Amino acid sequence: MPITTIDKDVDALTLTVVADFPAPVRRLWDAYQDPRQLEKFWGPPSYPATFTRHDAYPGGLTTYYMTGPEGDTHGGYWEWLAIDAPNSFEVLDGFLTDDGEPNLDMPRIRMTFAFEATDAGSRMTTTSHFASRENLEELVAMGMMEGMKEAMGQIDAVIADLEAFAAGRGTDAQILSDTQVRISRVVRGDVEQVWRAHNEPDLLKRWMLGPEGWSMPVCEVASSVGETYRYEWENDADQQRFGFTGELLGAEAPHRMVTTEAMIGNEGTATRNEMTLTPVDGGTLVSMLITYPDAETRDMILATGMTDGMETSYARLEQAVLTA
């Protein structure tokens, strides 16, 4: 059990948890920045968490839900207030309604996470700040302290896994629900470089090509919200073509971009793609949450070898663009 102390201060309206880990600060820090890792310990074992958004930058938003043993779900969110990598971050933590909106009838907590090196590895101090004594007592009565103990008891196993989330692992596809899939890949480059590679036509044409033997003769990028983009690829051997088009719904450079995407000529299978770029040890974590219209469309698209094609392109990005 990594927790060293828990201190409830009803006068200061705080709950402070100190935990020690046999791992470097950076390894512990990255576990909180990567949604794949975070969801392995944020919820207690009986209520595992699934993260559907994780913007680790000031002004960003994190959303997640915990699933209970009876299939019941309970949503939560973080509003990111500050970040000082890899030393500390601060969020406003709250509950979500069944519709995915902030539940203003439930208390919100300002939480600070501070990381420091120790002789044995690293120490994390988590301080929860409550708006009132009633809020503090209400959440403690709901099992907040017990839940934190159970959740943090899972962190050691996550940070000990040096292979599952490392740079060089390749592209992973994780099915989150009937309609959502998360694609993840650590790319060896900084966030600014990876953002430019996704938004500059001259760079896109050099790496977003899939298998060998294809070129990208059409690369029309959407640079402002509301604009449309159009990408077309051509087989160099027989000039066969296919392409995608969509609309830029939102952009927060260099961290987050939201688009629609549909195959040209088959716009009925449009998806919503939310890409988030997060700095981690070894490069930039590219996390793409894809929302499909239904499970059938999800399975049909995954069966095309989409993940393998994305891995080929990301490997080319590292070799032909970021290290060129």
Automatic annotation (TrEMBL):
Name one matching Pfam family: AHSA1
For this protein, the record's CDD domains field holds: SRPBCC_CalC_Aha1-like
Q: Which residues form the signal peptide?
A: none
Q: Where is the Activator of Hsp90 ATPase homologue 1/2-like C-terminal domain?
A: 23-159, 191-320
| Family of this protein | Belongs to the AHA1 family.
Protein name listed in UniProt: Uncharacterized protein YndB with AHSA1/START domain
